[in-house]
Amino acid sequence: MERSGPSEVTGSDASGPDPELAVTMGFTGFGKKARTFDLEAMFEQTRRTAVERSRKTLEAREKEEEMNREKELRRQSEDIEPTPSGSNMARDCSKSLSRDTSSSESEDTSDSSSDELIGPPLPPKMVGEPVNLMEEDILGPLPPPLYEEGEDDDDDEGEDEGEEENPVQKIPDSHEITLKHGTKTVSALGLDPSGARLVTGGYDYDVKFWDFAGMDASFKAFRSLQPCECHQIKSLQYSNTGDMILVVSGSSQAKVIDRDGFEVMECIKGDQYIVDMANTKGHTAMLHTGSWHPKIKGEFMTCSNDATVRIWEVENPRKQKSVFKPRTMQGKKVIPTTCTYSRDGNLIAAACQNGSIQIWDRNLTVHPKFHYKQAHDPGTDTSCVAFSYDGNVLASRGGDDTLKLWDVRQFNKPLFSALGLPTMFPMTDCCFSPDDKLIVTGTSVQRGCGSGKLVFFERRTFQRVYEIDITDASVVRCLWHPKLNQIMVGTGNGLAKVYYDPNKSQRGAKLCVVKTQRKAKQAETLTQDYIITPHALPMFREPRQRSTRKQLEKDRLDPLKSHKPEPPVAGPGRGGRVGTHGGTLSSYIVKNIALDKTDDSNPREAILRHAKAAEDNPYWVSPAYSKTQPKTMFAQVESDDEEAKNEPEWKKRKI
């Protein structure tokens, strides 16, 4: 039965629609016969498609059940004592069972499909005849027998389990390269997310950049700078995008530089005279460490000796975003020594000088979400806290020579604790392996008293499973990059070592070890000892006069060059020129006062020298007091002999 659409047009004109009418109506399809649909054919096609899909689903389900049965039989045969006859019987049983099930299933499907399916007949294997798996039409070489395939699977599973049980085999320590940073401690390491560049910082105030793809076998840094002047570098970390580096030094202001070392921003310094540190715009004391947010671009965190943890944004260096203030159980201030974000960025963990570990929700700055007050010994600086990649476990490296593991979901006691891990640096850190099965930390040694080690602990049992002797100095920093699968180590004698495995590691150090060291060109070696000044070159040299006589004649005619210098003026001055001591009375008096007129004569004799003349010819004072002035009488000066005669007897006896 065919049904026509409602827009079907019938007419006496068999030749087709009238073109003029189509133009008049405004569209070309006017007047054409509508499309017809065979509904029964459509329903039949839909039914066939549904039956075919259900048949495929049923076949897949039956195959899965058959595989499960075979695995169960194999597991039972392994549990029983393996004998040749028993294994053959189990194998025969499994074959016969699979053959019976396949034949019964094929019969059932053929019966059901013969009643329902419409179309060409099914392949022979579906018509009730038991078909062997080896007789199917398969492209390529034939698969191995069923029991051999099962044995291979068992072997593969056993190998996988062996690898899982022994994570030490995944440690990439077969090869190493050494990067010479300087002579002082390498206190900071940073590797960008792609693993292309390494940045190191130390106690010598230097920050050096290493490019694995651009280095050759000489292993030289392509850039060195001092971003914080005379402050030791304490922490370096690349952002999650790899375009910025957070530099934390001994100053109170953290800096952010780009990949090439140019400054992007510098945090503002706070007011140290304000009591409440939440009201200041920045840190007021020395920084300890810093960390980038793992998800939000441009956000980072720092902790300082002013007892605060502050969150910053690169776009707003004039003020921090939020402030966390660690407190003791009694509400007193306590200094945080290290801080970090969780893997999802929702939690902030900080370890304090009183031995406590405090964890906040990033959006709630008032009270910590978790607070364990005696995580490590009070008075020791906890140097590192690190979250695992799954975010459930926290590792803390204490200044009390311990490494502890904590469950964030039940933060009431440590899961494990390892002792005997000496540390002498406030930035000795720890990290997790990329598969979260190992925990790595370094140990410190006194100079000349052994070698520093890189120690590996298994996370599940916290057993000390592996050690690597690094060098005859302390191991301060360690970093295990997840993409490169390489371990970077910073030591106390100015070295940065990279451990890798050619088979297990990717890129990184493998790129530069294969490049031969570039030889210096001979031209460069020859010209190295010569110093060429610009004015010594002919193009910069001034032209020299061929004849000096003509130049002297020209200079004689020049009134300025041939002018005789005038001698100094003697006297009060003339011609507008001031004399040596000026022409005024005050300058003359000053000049004479400065002269040395010391008189060593007796002032009494100098006055009495004019006494007779004043008495004979009084002029100034004597006439005014002539009637009232008494007669002057001067004492006579006796000689030393007369004075000795007139001395009393008691003075003579005393002498």
Automatic annotation (TrEMBL):
It holds the Pfam family WD40. This is WD repeat-containing protein 70. InterPro entries: WD40/YVTN_repeat-like_dom_sf, WD40_PAC1, WD40_repeat_dom_sf, WD40_rpt, WD_repeat_GAD-1. Residues 572-581 have a biased composition (Gly residues). Residues 45-78, 541-566, 645-655 have a biased composition (Basic and acidic residues). GO terms for cellular component: nucleus; site of double-strand break. It comes from Marmota monax. Transmembrane segments: none annotated. PANTHER family: GASTRULATION DEFECTIVE PROTEIN 1-RELATED, WD REPEAT-CONTAINING PROTEIN 70.
